Amino acid sequence: MLRPAIIALTVLIFFAACHKDNAPDVTPTGPVTQQETNKWILDSMRYFYLWNSTLPATVDTTLSTTDYFASLKNAEDRFSFLYKPSDNSTYPKYMLYQYGILFSVIEQDGPKGVVQLVIPGSVAALNGIKRGDYFTAINGNTLTSSNASELTAAMLAGTSATLTVNDAVITLPAQQLGEDPLYQKDTFMVKDKVVAYLFYNYFNDTYNTALQQAFQAFKNAGASELILDLRYNPGGSVAAAALLNAMIAPGISEQSLFAKYTGNNHLGSRDVTYKSALSVPESGNPISFSALTDKRLSLSRVFIISGEATASAAELTINSLKPYTQVIQIGEKTFGKDKGAVIISDARIPWTLMPITYNLLNANGTGGYTSGISPDYTIDEMSELPLKTLGNHTDPLIAKAISIIDGNAKTTTHTGTIRHYYNSQIPAAQKGIMICR
User: Whole-prediction pTM value?
Assistant: First the structure.
């Protein structure tokens, strides 16, 4: 995970080196010129960039690094990224990992902020802020339909912020926070079926053991149905995504295809098996496929709850499960990140480049979800307020899954939509880095 407060998520294909194997080691000789930096960017993108055929023939040395990089990006490219490791200001900032909360600003009897998620133990949590709370002002400025984005941007740019929550003014310091992504794991009965529920907010290899333990508990309880809640999940590790899929679906072996990557004329296509995906986590030890045997549920279907910030590895999970099991998706259309990138760095260049490099497909060769993956049942979680606690059976999205499991799929659920002015998790869906090794 990049710091400060940067999470993983554009599917990022990692190459151990981006130079020729027989090239001599480069000894840094001091600052490089703007011409050298811009030429390095152009040369790198000529080889790796998915849209390399649209690049110019010559380098422009008159532009700054960031402006030059922006000038090279294809109109279809929403995700290529450039940052300077030594300069914190070039890193994206995310609400959850800076202030410990996620929220949306909506219109219902006037604009208001609705708290969707709070990191346990964060200052926000210690001040009593919880899921479902409303706030009406940021830094003393009343929320309106026209200033929601501006106020939240100022909040991210500051070192602290105040929220007016239920008429109380609460001060939150900007921090660098982490999270245990397994917020809620439970089993319950629906008629004669044991249903497992998992709220999983980020594909983090640090918690792969905990994820396996959760599925072991589901298996021990006799779970025959699973509700996987990815409504705010912006992505993360490919290995963690492959691990999750392998424990859900039947008919997967270590040589089964997890995903396919298709690139430009230089990189071609690449097949990724479950064995290869599990062998190179971003952190920790490789995962043995055989070690998952007693944890696999091998379900004929899975219910996946999605939202507009469900992205990257979370979308890859949804798409890559479909060749192996029935996916019943409930909620909102996902973000639409069906592309992968590479990390490119050079000892003499102070910047790190991450150009989009691959389209992402499942084992059947299906992808192309640039506009997002549409749910089978469209339901806005804001259609019933206040928000229920995580995992609550009356949450409209969870209730829909339960009604289908119960055999009463026609049970009335709230399908109305609420106007959203701002979703604090969208920047995480836009800018993170997920490494596919």
Answer: 0.91
